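Quick check before the chapter quiz. The format below is the same one you will see on the exam, so make sure you can read both the input and the output lines.
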Amino acid sequence: MVQRSLVLMKPDAVKRGIVGEIMHRFERAGLKIVAVKLVQADDELAGKHYPNTEKWKVIVGQRTIDECVQNGIDLMENMGTMDPLEVGEIVKKWNGRCECG
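Here is the expected output.
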């Protein structure tokens, strides 16, 4: 049976110049890339792929906080809050303009 997967890379992967390395890792694992599409998602398109619920924002916010703490990133300096809901709301609106770390 043939299985297909969709891989989405966020703008920071493009900005950091690691898209090729990410794709190369898939190829080294023996996976075949059959198509590539580069899209600059606007708010409307992004909104179709991310829920707008408080629960989702809290989960994403807490994951972001955990990752930042683990990697020594000062969230208060970068985002001005450590509240999971507020961080989740920032991440929901995030479009690559915020620089953290």
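If your answer matched, good. The radius of gyration is 16 Å.
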